[in-house]
Amino acid sequence: MTAGFPQARPRRLRRTPAMRRLVAQADVRPADLVQPLFVKEGISEPQPVSSMPGVLQHTRESLRKAAAAAVDAGAGGLILFGIPAEKDARGSAADSPSGIVQLALADLAADLGTETVLMADLCLDEYTDHGHCGVLTPAWDVDNDATLERYASIALAQARAGAHVVAPSGMMDGQVAAIRGALDASGFADVAICAYAAKYASAFYGPFRDAAECAPQFGDRASYQQDHGSPDEALREVLLDVGEGADMIMVKPALAYLDIISLVARSVRLPVAAYQVSGEYAMVEAAAASGWLDRDRVIMESLTAIKRAGAGIILTYWATEVAGRLR
Ligand code: PBG
User: Fold this and answer.
1) Which of 75, 80, 276, 283 would staple 254 via disulfide (CB 3.0–4.6 Å)?
2) What percent of the chain has a predicted confidence (pLDDT) above 90?
3) Which fold has domain 27-326?
4) pLDDT recorded at residue 40
5) Given this model, what pLDDT does residue 5 score?
6) Which residues are part of the catalytic machinery?
7) Mutation test of ligand 1: which of 205, 255, 318 has the most ligand atoms closer than 8 Å to its C-beta?
8) pTM for the whole thing?
9) HEC states along the chain?
10) Is pLDDT of 261 > 60?
């Protein structure tokens, strides 16, 4: 150190928790967090999901309690996934007025009104017997345009049941336009679309396929979900969805795709959501259960990283817990 010269001392701003808090640029607010919830038809007790310790497949009754708990903790919203009792080739239960998600949405709309944001995942994979996100051609390919008709119909069923936001996650071309058109034509111009715009074909979804019972029965999702080597493709998908009328843009998964979140957040002026997916959850829970990681600190560090990358909204299985802790 040379006397007389100002010495750069970044550590001055790290001396106390109060100083660190004052100068922090990214932080996680309860209202940023969206709690994914699973509701299953035909069960009388909530069922644990073995690959996601702490996550349940809910009954309609237990779902109402879990939703109320998320809202009480201050979480910003909920996203529902349904597991029907019967599956078929076209996923008929997805848009049936008596389908499990429609019944559950109506329950939560009645319980919670506009106190929270009720989102519904809009896809076919939980409802088809083959487990793909769309209907199939005779050659067993996923039929893009026939699937769009199904998505439009599911959007209407979810909107009628009380969804404030529908979140198409199937990665069909033109899905946002098809859904926007159907909603607008049926008096649901106020229902928003959160587009899973940049959704990668990811092995991090493994545990979700247990939770939602939706593993593809043949092949994989690589012909409709994105390849993980292609950031430009993410931007292309995002810009298409913006042009088709998306209100929010989602990137998924989150932690392995922070560069994509950052790219998207710098490129569009819509709310950007990131989905911290089942595999991200399972890795931390498993390591923590072995005593290898400090669970709570790792959770906060990863959520902060996702915010720092540019996501304003985070879907996370820890939403209720973290929102409660931050209050
Ligand atoms: C499709 C859908 C999936 C997830 C959310 N919506 C599964 C998939 O694309 O295979 C994954 C969420 C997670 O892993 O937590 N309906």
Assistant:
1) 276
2) 97
3) TIM Barrel (3.20.20)
4) 98
5) 79
6) 199, 252
7) 205
8) 0.96
9) CCCCCCCCCHHHHHCCHHHHHHHCCCCCCHHHEEEEEEEECCCCCCEECCCCCCCEEECHHHHHHHHHHHHHHCCCEEEEEEECCCCECCCHHHCCCCCHHHHHHHHHHHHHCCCCEEEEEECCCCCECCCCCCCECCCCCECHHHHHHHHHHHHHHHHHHCCCEEEECCCCCCHHHHHHHHHHHCCCCCCEEEEEEEEECCHHHHHHHHHCCCCCCCCCCCCCCECCCCHHHHHHHHHHHHHHCCCEEEEECCHHHHHHHHHHHHHCCCCEEEEECHHHHHHHHHHHHCCCCCHHHHHHHHHHHHHHHCCCEEEECCHHHHHHHHC
10) yes
